[in-house]
Amino acid sequence: MKTYRDIAREIERRILTGVYPVNTSLPSRLELMREFQVARATLDRAVQELVISRRLTSRRGSGTLVNPLSEHRRDIALIGMPLGVELEMYRNFNCRVFKKELLAKRSNWAMLYEFDALLWRFPHSADIPVIEAVNGKIPQVIVNRVIPGVNCVSTDHRGAYRTIAAERMEHFPGALPVFMSSGGDSLPGQYRFEGFADACRKAGKFYELWNFAPGGDFSLLASEMEARLKAVKGREVLVLSDSISLTGAFMQAARSAGRCWGKDLWYSDFDNNYPENVWGVKVTSFIQNYEALMAAALERLGELLDGGSCQVPEHKLIFPLRRNGDT
Q1: 120 — phi, psi (to 5°)?
Q2: Measured between alpha carbons, how far is residue 220 from residues 95, 226, 227, 252, 258 in Å?
Q3: Considering the domain 75-155+290-322, what is its CATH architecture?
Q4: How far apart are the first and last CA of the chain?
């Protein structure tokens, strides 16, 4: 069975050998699907890879065109958290890591204009003034954040938490909804809380917000959580945490408080992909699809570099992968 990478390599070979001449259109998607005997989604992913690498240009209404072989590889600044899972996707760009520490000085912001485009990987609140200052002047895409007026590709944190909170409240109508926050200026944490609050409002439910700061003394953190659980003794509790960083302490607190998983306590968190033996129980959580995020972000950057207006923001939300556990 052919993978999208096999198909991308074969199409690229045909371009290099002149089977598909430059400045001409590829055969139709239907023809290629029949030839390679793959689904539309697989073929689209292969074409997307070649659009990112600038072998092809895909335009609505104009088909998919073969670019000149001498097409210039653009210089892209990678700013923020390194994500090794998608490094292979960068191979056809001149990518340079821009140190975020330099952005602490406003006088250094002009250095960003040395690049053809910017890719902000998981920016923090402190980066927003820089993003807004260069927006509309240089193509940029931000990953995993949603900032009005800026091109972004993000995990749908809000939609994920709205979905699971609504689902849990429907199954356990007598439970007290609780959102457990790890604090700080985490924008994804804020999105997750908004999704939880959306579901509670729609269900007409009052909820509680428990704030905890991860780090420091683990036992003290677990004791604080245990006290919260004992304060609602006698009630079923539905807890959604905005971070895996709180999960270990909460597991200990639940045992100490005499809670029974799946009977009077249900719990979910984010980015927890640990096996059951780590916590002693399998946790229901969402996992970010980093590969899909970066592929979509690089495709959008390619569109901007090919003449798309950086004044018109595109917000693309990607629903995370779901891991269902016992809680």
Answers
A1: -90, 115
A2: 44, 10, 11, 11, 18
A3: 3-Layer(aba) Sandwich (3.40)
A4: 37
Report residue 119: phi and psi, to 5°: -125, 110
Q: How far is CA 55 from the centre of its chain?
A: 26
Q: What tokens does 320 get?
A: 């995370």
pLDDT surpasses 50 at 85: no
- The Cα–Cα gap between 21 and 36 comes to 20
Long-range contacts of 197-206 (CB under 8 A, 24+ apart): 198/158, 198/162, 198/165, 199/161, 199/162, 199/163, 199/165, 199/166, 199/169, 200/165, 200/169, 202/166, 203/166, 203/169, 203/170, 205/169, 205/177, 206/177
Q: Is the pTM of this model over 0.85?
A: no
Asked if the domains 4-66 and 75-155+290-322 are classified in one and the same CATH topology, the answer is: no
For residue 160, give the nearest of 279, 260, 300, 272 by alpha carbon. 272
Q: Residue 188: what pLDDT? A: 87
**Domain over 157-287 is classified CATH 3.40.50.2300:** yes
Q: What CATH number has the domain spanning 4-66? A: 1.10.10.10
Lowest average pLDDT, out of 178-187, 229-238, 240-249, goes to 178-187
Please provide the DSSP assignment of 37-65 as one string.
T--HHHHHHHHHHHHHTTSEEEETTTEEE
Tell me the Ramachandran region of residue 262: left when phi exceeds 0, alpha when psi lies from -120 to 50, beta otherwise: left
Question: pLDDT tens digit string along 264-301?
Answer: 999 999 988 888 778 877 788 899 888 888 888 888 88
Lowest mean pLDDT among 82-96, 99-113, 248-262: 82-96
